[in-house]
Amino acid sequence: MSTPKGTAPASGLGQGGYTTSWRTTYESETLAPQTYGDLVKLYGDMLRLFDIMAWSKKTENVGGRSVTVFEEGAILDTIDLSTATAIGSAGADISVISAKNAGRIGFDLHIPAQYTNQEIAVPYKITAKSGSGPYTYTCSPWNSTFQITTEVPIGQKLILGASSYAPGEGQPKALKRAWYTHTHKTRIMKESVFFEGGQQALQEWAQLAQATDGSTLVNRSLNEAEFRLRVQQADHMLLGQPNNNSFTGTNSLSESNTLTSDYGLIPGMYTDAMRQYYTGTYGTDNFDIVKFLLASQGVGSGAVDYYYGQELGLSIENSGLGFIREFSGGTDLQKALTSIGFVMKQFTKNGVTFNLCEVPEFSNPLAYGANGYNFETMGLIFPQGKVTTQMNAYNDMGLSVGSSKKKALDHVALGYLNNNGENRKLVVGDVAGVNGLGYKITNEYDQVQWYMLTEMMTFLLALNQSILVLKTA
Questions:
Q1: Judging by DSSP bridges, how do beta strands 379-383 and 352-358 pair with one another?
Q2: pLDDT at position 59, please?
Q3: Which residues of the chain have pLDDT under 50?
Q4: Predicted local distance difference test score (pLDDT) of residue 457
Q5: Could you tell me which of 346, 38, 16 has the C-alpha nearest to residue 193?
Q6: How far, in Å, are 73, 294, 391, 392 from residue 181 at the CA level?
Q7: Smallest Cα–Cα separation from 459: which of 38, 16, 68, 46?
Q8: Residues 78, 160 contacting (CB under 8 angstroms)
Q9: By C-alpha distance, which of 318, 320, 339, 343 is closest to 331?
Q10: Is there a contact between 123 and 82 (Cβ–Cβ < 8 Å)?
Q11: Region label for 420, one of left (φ > 0), alpha (ψ between -120 and 50) or beta (otherwise)
């Protein structure tokens, strides 16, 4: 990690409620001038990628704790070799063996030039097909001089080309489009606020009462609790993991239930996304490569959202300024977008429009910017296009709840359990004892508590089209 670090900021945060002991400990701070609001602004309420997704309306209501998403596969495919194709003589047939079933008799299979001693790819016609997986394709060259001069290795992708039929021949075999499924699960996250009686009524220093996150101790505490809950949601969205360790929880009836959770964005991208590594600075050449990566997954030239940590952002800015000085005659190649509630810088390189947005939570010293982590050098790139899906929701017993729904979602979307009149996007309630705040008294104790709950899932769609940017040195 190359980003310079100072000492970690002190929070004094600890488990417990606002009681007389809290007042005794912090009396001198709460009754003296201080800069509470500025500290919260600096170290607390920073923008999160979670907030960006929410503000961009990349959300979806779901009717079950488990949602299976069906994604449509591509309408084209290649034939990937599962066995090497041997060297042959001029004009001889070749046998191509692959686990893929997309090849059809009568269609061309193009062999790369490097294996045929030619300067351009050469076509062979599929004349026979056998097997039930793997499949053996018998292919004949269109030109009697064509031959395999270098063994075609396992894993080589061969392009399927056009069909060819004589007058009066019949039709080719039909193709069916594949569907891919992945299942997402909700995660229940909670926060609490506790007040011993009278804490709200005690006099405070005016500067504290006028702090930017609330005018009273109760208001500030509720705001802080909701903020911490949003931090939890952001962490689940970024770094969540499924429950593969049989974690359970017990309800008020002493019944044991399994905790549900799911993969977050970064673990999901680390497994399924393309990766772009850079060393030193992230320059214009790195931006050029993005187009080729997208094209390799069938994504044409268009726009992408590029989220990054501050160190990667500085690298991008410095390389961009260097490019401007050298090639643009001093003109500004970037423009700022603010229409969706946060600032994005936009420019176009190699036919791809990049919407750039720094994620300050990656540099928050009390979050992902703490010593020993590398989020400040990380980048996340997503195409702006929608992903067409079919979604099936399931209840706790694994039974389908409702018919399948067709949805067009972003590559990353937030799902909230919200159905049949119960909205669990954010649940806030009070449990009040004997109190002077006006809440209904439900128990004998001189106290008030507030409980918060959210139940959400993160949809990760077509991650093969996204790019995880990592720094190597």
A1: unpaired
A2: 85
A3: 1, 22-45, 324-333, 337-342
A4: 92
A5: 16
A6: 10, 22, 10, 10
A7: 68
A8: yes
A9: 320
A10: no
A11: left
**So what's the pLDDT on residue 180?**
78
Q: How many CB atoms lie within 10 A of CB 140?
A: 15
Q: Is the bond preceding residue 153 a cis peptide, omega within 30 degrees?
A: no
**What's the one-letter identity of residue 208?**
L
Give the number of other CB atoms < 10 A from CB of residue 366: 16
Structure-token pair, residue 265: 């964005």
The 3-class secondary structure across 345-388, one letter per residue, is: EEEEECCEEEEEEECHHHHCCCCCCCCCCCHHHCEEEEECCCEE
Structural element, H or E, at residue 312: helix 310-327
Break the chain into its structural domains and give their ranges. 13-75+177-473, 78-176
Residue with tokens 């979602």: 409
pLDDT at 7: 57
Q: 389 phi and psi, to 5 degrees?
A: -135, 165
Other beta carbons less than 10 A from residue 201's beta carbon: 9
What is the predicted pLDDT for the residue at 350? 86
CA atoms of 419 and 395, how far apart (whole Å): 12
